[in-house]
Amino acid sequence: MFVARSIHADHKDLIHDVAYDFYGRRLATCSSDQSVKIWDVGEDGQWHCTASWKTHSGSVWKVTWAHPEFGQVIATCSFDRTAAVWEELVIDNSGGERSQSHWVKRTSLVDSRTSVTDLKFAPKHLGLQLATCSSDGIIRIYEAPDVMNLSQWSLQNEISSKLSCSCLTWSPSRVHPPMIAVGSDDANPSAGGKILIYEYNDNTRRWVKVESIMTVTDRVHDIAFAPNLGRSYHLLAAAAKDVRIISLKPLNIDQTSTAVQTSVPKFEIRQVGQFDDHNSQVWRVSWNITGTILASSGDDGCIRLWKGNYLDNWKLVSTLQGDGSAVTGDKSPAPSSSISSTPYYKLGQITGPGQVPWH
């Protein structure tokens, strides 16, 4: 069964993001108080703050972990128009006390002229790459050529989306070309689709926009590709006015042919789920490790779990309040043991307008 644990984070302002590390044993939180805190779970199951420091000169919107193969590394982005990469140095206390970690800023990425709204490390098989997006519609791809020297990052690509960007996600697939989906919170209703799909072309060494998902016209607050464990297509979840689940099935196109143009559809796009159960803005979507269950959180203060079958029919399987208890009168079936034991990458809720911050 689900067990909720409250963390008294002691941030002095709104908490905007919560991120688990790869193993789910560490947690990072960031806030408008310009700080980041690192939490480690103890043997007693309680979370202990092992580091806290000021990271930016403005609100910190997002924090994300690199794969542990590259060390204990996080990246943060802020309203102050910068993104930063931090690496942990562990100080061993010989007195038997809990070891305190010290996080060092390895680099500051200052190319953006507006607020950096989101950032994500690439899947491990693509090396140590970091994608950022800004409110001016620019997506930037950085790479650390030497993983032993994280002070050196080079700007590999710069993509103009022509829409205000609010969130992004990397496709985790190893068998398809590298792909990034970007969500927009552009307020202009005539801007069209608010989800853009970019794919890396090995021949030109450039990122090319291959799709614009026109069915999503509301502001997008969060976006996430599902883990790909043998699936021949992509699943993409988006948090907007409601929860959207979109299937992108690659079409059989000869990628080596010079006749292939970017105007040719690359995917068969199908919306396999649209749910307004939150009855309010949805702020976060997060997949479990197998990509079979989606968690969403919204302004109603609830976390809802969605599960799909082999036909890609999705339905609500559980609704939880912020304290982890089931919603009174909820008609969704109680989660089975197989669902409740499924680990999650991340299940943090953004603090948006009208929401109660974690404390």
UniProtKB/TrEMBL annotation:
<dbReference type="Pfam" id="PF00400">
    <property type="entry name" value="WD40"/>
</dbReference>
<dbReference type="InterPro" id="IPR015943">
    <property type="entry name" value="WD40/YVTN_repeat-like_dom_sf"/>
</dbReference>
<protein>
    <submittedName>
        <fullName>Nucleoporin SEH1-like isoform X1</fullName>
    </submittedName>
</protein>
<dbReference type="InterPro" id="IPR020472">
    <property type="entry name" value="WD40_PAC1"/>
</dbReference>
<dbReference type="InterPro" id="IPR036322">
    <property type="entry name" value="WD40_repeat_dom_sf"/>
</dbReference>
<keyword id="KW-0539">Nucleus</keyword>
<dbReference type="InterPro" id="IPR019775">
    <property type="entry name" value="WD40_repeat_CS"/>
</dbReference>
<dbReference type="InterPro" id="IPR037363">
    <property type="entry name" value="Sec13/Seh1_fam"/>
</dbReference>
<keyword id="KW-0677">Repeat</keyword>
<dbReference type="InterPro" id="IPR001680">
    <property type="entry name" value="WD40_rpt"/>
</dbReference>
<feature type="repeat" description="WD">
    <location>
        <begin position="275"/>
        <end position="307"/>
    </location>
</feature>
<keyword id="KW-0653">Protein transport</keyword>
<keyword id="KW-0813">Transport</keyword>
<keyword id="KW-0458">Lysosome</keyword>
<keyword id="KW-0853">WD repeat</keyword>
<comment type="similarity">
    <text>Belongs to the WD repeat SEC13 family.</text>
</comment>
<feature type="repeat" description="WD">
    <location>
        <begin position="8"/>
        <end position="41"/>
    </location>
</feature>
